[in-house]
Amino acid sequence: MNHTEVLTRYVTNFVDELVVNGLTDAVISPGSRSTPLALTLAEHKEIKDWVIIDERSAAFFALGLAKKTKRPVVLVCTSGTATANYYPAIVEAYHSRVPLIVLTADRPHELRGIGAPQAIDQIKMYGDFVKWFHEMALPEAGTAMLHYVRNKAASAYHIAKEGNQGVVHLNFPFREPLMVDFSLNDVWEINDISCTSPILPTFEGKKHLSKQQVEEILRQLAGKQRGVIVCGPQTDLHFPVAVTKLAEKWGLPILADPLSQVRSGAHVSDVIIEGYDALLRNKTIREKLKPDFIIRFGAMPVSKAYSFYVKQHQDALQMVVENDEGFREPTNNPTTFIFAEPTTYCEALADAGTETTSKEWLQLWKQFNDIAKMHLNDQSDIEIREGEAIRAVMDSTPNQSTIFVGNSMAIRDLDSFFWKTDKQIEVLANRGANGIDGVVSSGLGACAAGVRVTLVLGDLSFFHDMNGLHAAMHYQLPLTILLINNNGGGIFSFLSQADDKKHFEALFGTPLHIDFKYVVHMYGGYYVHAKTEVDVKQKLIESYNREGLSVIEVKTNRDMNANWHKTKWQAIEQEILEERNR
Amino acid sequence: MNHTEVLTRYVTNFVDELVVNGLTDAVISPGSRSTPLALTLAEHKEIKDWVIIDERSAAFFALGLAKKTKRPVVLVCTSGTATANYYPAIVEAYHSRVPLIVLTADRPHELRGIGAPQAIDQIKMYGDFVKWFHEMALPEAGTAMLHYVRNKAASAYHIAKEGNQGVVHLNFPFREPLMVDFSLNDVWEINDISCTSPILPTFEGKKHLSKQQVEEILRQLAGKQRGVIVCGPQTDLHFPVAVTKLAEKWGLPILADPLSQVRSGAHVSDVIIEGYDALLRNKTIREKLKPDFIIRFGAMPVSKAYSFYVKQHQDALQMVVENDEGFREPTNNPTTFIFAEPTTYCEALADAGTETTSKEWLQLWKQFNDIAKMHLNDQSDIEIREGEAIRAVMDSTPNQSTIFVGNSMAIRDLDSFFWKTDKQIEVLANRGANGIDGVVSSGLGACAAGVRVTLVLGDLSFFHDMNGLHAAMHYQLPLTILLINNNGGGIFSFLSQADDKKHFEALFGTPLHIDFKYVVHMYGGYYVHAKTEVDVKQKLIESYNREGLSVIEVKTNRDMNANWHKTKWQAIEQEILEERNR
């Protein structure tokens, strides 16, 4: 068998096995060394291939696509610094538990460490941010080799998607010539086995607690009246129903993070408290809401005020439920960890227990929540702020829609102004490591799953990944961007750095002074500057009927936003504390 | 001592020690956790701080600045994925041996591995691409701690710049509050020692061969008539004079890479052969130029044809001279490695030896070189191609100037059309790992050394780092960009991938279809589309008298360029082979 045939059979069997296991999408960046993989992924009729030139954007695009579809997505790039551009998205995927299969092409061993062009040490180059690394063997003739590559493809797919989902990295040494030949006989097959079912079929269990374990948990909770259910980021769309039923049965408030998927959907009920970030800013109010126990599902919510609440109540019994593994409790409070599939666990608790809590407790949370929402919703006719912009999105977005939200201020604004609704809205964000990088591409990746996405983000985050917009043009992806432009880093106005008048604007405020209209037009997008809440709503609704990219820009003021929040928080505190003193 | 005072003294002493050791520039990306470092670098009167928002661009900017100044540059960013954005430039700095000091801010130990926001595992996160990693201690009170931070700063500076220059990475755990206070007494000082001289003064030797070693080398070369000196990328500006003297004395041709700094300057002589890439494409010509020995300084030249020449002549005695360490010989031919400072080594050889080689040998190279240049220089009045564009740059660029050149086609075009000149032109490129990423920022980083730079690059490379242009606007840096836009990846038209009609344009050609005028205008730059060689020259000269950013775009055709090169290579072969047969 000649070199081309050996190479072709090696790569086609590898790629085909990914497909047999469920792969549907691959994101490819151009390069020479990766030619065998790129051509084969493009050629396979079951794979949709996305070509994205900037590897950093490509990786975040794959991340968004995998996040939306909840299935592994393949990434392919050539050797050299191309591979290093994947690193930010790999770090994010590790922390937000998103399945990616990274395939890097490499020089063969004889061209490593000797100054050959574009040859860097790619072995374990992503360190502990990948679940599994494997250096692939050089292609060789024979059935054993084809079994080997199919085994590795199947393992890679499985490892990426099971347990805590994450990234696997396979490094492929390829010798020249790099062309493959699909005209060979049975090129997608191994002669003696069928390739229509996986080579390693799996039955994978989920973690369920035993009856005895559930009883022990109920015993620990017995007699504790003031409980709080907290929902961090979740992706299982069955979870909101199960956790709401549990809370209703037990009479507990649910503090629901904007990424919990609990704030929206047909299940929505008045046990869901979404104004807690504003409430928990005040120490006295935190004391009035002192809990006996906390059951948290998933990572900590975005709200910093909530973390103050937890820190203030170290004596509360805290239980954290994790799907698979991980000790995510950033206050270092004593905490019981429950490793179990959350939806089933909620159902088990609701079935087993007959927890009776005081009605006043839930009533208190509801009452305070109403006060917070009333103040935050208070209309005024001065110029538009972050709050109005977010409200416009939540009002305009149709049922069955997807919102992707940027980090830093955008997600905090969404946390403050995303009121519960019976519309079904999936809200996604890169909330593993909370970077402002790659957000445009992640939003577009979610679009690539075949849905319209509304992406809400700030100007620094938009700037960081403007290269991502090329995919919107190239693939005519249906993305609406609400660009909240406060000309710089708005979050710093809330921090003590804001007091340093000498260096603040240069080091933290960092205004870009960019007119983003140019870049939107460069990528053939529709651009409009909206000045009022009504205007934003109208432009959003129009965009939902338009093909391709629409960018609606809202210009706000950093200081004014910080002051407005502080004023509102004070008003909420005042009303609650005065009322309680009456 | 309170927290703020402890933190302040820790950071100011660290930063001050960097300055005492020679630090002049720091590139800072905005963030909260890095506040103590950012404020102190901005406050120190001896440091010029550059604030760049996109960390990927920031790192390549620092790389360009360090490459031009040949001194370490500091990078500072916050925790999380920000740090991962440095990775591509760190990989490049490792391979191209550029000194960088990377300072990442981190959460303190009690906030690691527990799901705290923006906390990722930053320990050794750049793997083997850094020369040294150190996890800094948490700030504590006392003189011992200040001695410690000064020691670490001094070591970092030294390690980055000595031997094979490269990257050092220090990770700083900082607890809140993060503000520092420069109003404290003697905040830049340790009470009992002077801080105006380094805490660890060093005397660092260079590698010099002994007289006996030089004699042994001469003995090995004795009797070999047909020798070639090859100069890969070099940064020492004394080297070109020394190597040219040696070649002249020994009657040897110098095959000089465009990054060797040997093709331009007052030393330029007719022993310098710059047309070898075109010559060595033909096997018969390579045979006619069969060498007895090769002495190469530094890494392999960019020319692929040259690597064919080396592979074809495995029996030639090859000696590779490395400044410090590294086995860079990508053909795997038997090779003698000489670890010695190249300039001194050239002088030692010239002083010691009285090598006499045949005059015909050098004459042959000169004659062939003239033929190659004549064909490549052949004027024609059809539309502008890469060659004319590069020629326009070389003609227009003034004496004492700096050119930064992109990878992929741009450097190959420069290799083909950069004729030796007595103008002093420093040519720089990211030639460690040959990425197309970060090139705009690296060019701007070179500008930040206080010189005008002409950056020559293709459209994909320009696209990859358009974010870098923000620094051009923000700091009004004097950058002239010659953008050679062939709407895609021109280099692939030279490879076998070009034969795959089905997938070529989508996977390899990858046309961007972008009108770059928009982005140049967005960043306040001057933009012009130049259509002829004369026009390019004129626009270049105009740009050299303009402040800030100028972009001169030349639109070329990928296929036409590949065909033109092939035609020229054929014509050169034909003339040489026919002439020799006469």
Automatic annotation (TrEMBL), chains A, B:
Domain Thiamine pyrophosphate enzyme N-terminal TPP-binding: 14-125
Known catalytic reactions: isochorismate + 2-oxoglutarate + H(+) = 5-enolpyruvoyl-6-hydroxy-2-succinyl-cyclohex-3-ene-1-carboxylate + CO2
Cofactor: Mg(2+); Mn(2+); thiamine diphosphate
Residue span(s) of domain Thiamine pyrophosphate enzyme TPP-binding: 440-554
Nucleotide-binding recorded as keyword: no
Pathway as given in its UniProt record: Quinol/quinone metabolism; 1,4-dihydroxy-2-naphthoate biosynthesis; 1,4-dihydroxy-2-naphthoate from chorismate: step 2/7; Quinol/quinone metabolism; menaquinone biosynthesis
Record Pfam families: TPP_enzyme_C (PF02775), TPP_enzyme_M_2 (PF16582), TPP_enzyme_N (PF02776)
One of the record's GO molecular function terms: 2-succinyl-5-enolpyruvyl-6-hydroxy-3-cyclohexene-1-carboxylic-acid synthase activity
Enzyme Commission number(s) of this protein: 2.2.1.9
Purpose of the protein: Catalyzes the thiamine diphosphate-dependent decarboxylation of 2-oxoglutarate and the subsequent addition of the resulting succinic semialdehyde-thiamine pyrophosphate anion to isochorismate to yield 2-succinyl-5-enolpyruvyl-6-hydroxy-3-cyclohexene-1-carboxylate (SEPHCHC).
Protein name, entry field: 2-succinyl-5-enolpyruvyl-6-hydroxy-3-cyclohexene-1-carboxylate synthase
Organism in which the protein naturally occurs: Virgibacillus dokdonensis
